């Protein structure tokens, strides 16, 4: 439930100029989440949201960007911890992960923003990575192996 709520909070602050915790709590309640102000306050802290100025002179919640080098290390660690095997089928990479880790590894791959990856679909222990071309698929496979084995 928390994961769903956090995802919805991110969607809401990207779609609307949410100015207060009370407004965010109201929007979440409208979406069917039973939240209190304390819950929303914790969510804001956990998601590392911050307030930024808007064009109208007000403030709204936004996602606080992390140091890319530090976050990159975390994503690589998730990739290494979850990785089992990878295989190529034309322009699709099929990655097997430890059971239950596919979504986390796919999220890490998305966050790493490989130019070759068009998109990922994750199940419980399998990820399909759609890649633009067969050549880029081979290049990506080599990049992933070098990250995992480093």
Descriptive report:
The structure is a single chain. By secondary structure, this protein is of the alpha+beta class. The chain has six helices and six strands, in the order αααββαββαββα. It has helices at residues 2-15, 21-30, 37-46, 68-82, 102-112, 134-149; strands at residues 49-53, 59-63, 83-89, 92-97, 117-122, 126-131. α4 (68-82) runs antiparallel to α5. The mean pLDDT is 89.
* Molecular shape: elongated
The order of strands across the largest sheet is: 3-4-6-5
How many distinct beta strands? 6
- Main sheet makeup: 4 strands, antiparallel
Distance between the termini: 36 Å
Report the helical percentage. Answer: 40-55%
Could you outline the blueprint of secondary structure elements for this entry?
Layout: H1 2-15, H2 21-30, H3 37-46, E1 49-53, E2 59-63, H4 68-82, E3 83-89, E4 92-97, H5 102-112, E5 117-122, E6 126-131, H6 134-149
Antiparallel strand pairs: 1-2, 3-4, 4-6, 5-6
Helix pairs in contact: 2-3, 4-5
Tag the structure with descriptive keywords.
two-stranded antiparallel sheet, 150 residues, single chain, 51% helix, four-stranded antiparallel beta sheet, 23% strand, alpha+beta
Brief synopsis:
The chain has 150 residues and is of the alpha+beta class.
């Amino acid at each position: 439930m928390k994961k769903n709520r956090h995802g919805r909070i991110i969607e809401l602050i990207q779609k609307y100029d949410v100015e207060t915790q009370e407004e965010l709590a109201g929007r979440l309640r409208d979406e069917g989440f039973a939240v209190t102000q304390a819950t929303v306050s914790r969510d804001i802290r956990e998601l590392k949201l911050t307030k930024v100025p808007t064009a109208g002179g007000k403030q709204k919640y936004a996602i606080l960007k992390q140091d890319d080098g530090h976050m990159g290390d975390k994503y690589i660690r998730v990739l290494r911890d979850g990785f089992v095997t990878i295989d190529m089928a034309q322009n699709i990479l099929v990655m097997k992960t430890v059971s239950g880790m596919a979504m986390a590894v796919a999220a890490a791959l998305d966050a790493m923003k490989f130019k070759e990856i068009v998109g990922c679909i994750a199940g419980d222990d399998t990820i399909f990575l759609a890649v633009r071309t067969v050549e880029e698929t081979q290049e990506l496979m080599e990049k992933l192996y070098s990250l995992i084995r480093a």
